[in-house]
Amino acid sequence: MCYVDVAMPQVYWEQAHNPDEQLQRTVKEFSDPALVGTVRPIIPAGAAYGIGTWEPTPEDILLFRRTAAESGLQAVSFYSWDWAGAPGRESLWIALTGVGQ
Q: Model-level pTM?
């Protein structure tokens, strides 16, 4: 038997720049027992990758992190660390990690 202690929804705002709205919607939905059954602590995964001509901005990352904190979430995660840490994306890396500030 498998038990899950947390919910880790992917909260990607691909082709947009509204991480706060996407995260607030996710928190609302994952906090509704009618939708998810047993409500679990939420640790969302945010967008730290690019596709085509779109990529998150450092401001997107910081807004996602701030909205998570204001929502009482204990942690966040991001996909994809290797993409965000590639040369030329230093400002995105700093927004993700705080390293270099």
A: 0.91
Q: What count of other Cβ atoms lies within 10 Å of the Cβ of residue 60?
A: 21
What tokens does 46 get?
């945010």
Domains of the chain, by residue range, sit at: 10-31+42-51+59-89
Mean of pLDDT values over 42-57: 96
Q: Are 25 and 69 in contact (CB under 8 A)?
A: no
- State the Cα–Cα distance between residues 3 and 57, nearest whole angstrom: 36
For 20-40, the pLDDT digits (tens) are 999 999 999 999 999 999 999
Report CA-CA distances (Å) from 53 to 14, 61, 79, 83. 11, 17, 17, 14
Dig out the tokens for 13 from the structure.
């705002």
Beta strand spans in 1-101 (E) = 10-11, 45-47, 77-79
19 and 60 Cβ atoms separated by less than 8 Å: yes
Single-letter code of the amino acid located at 97: T
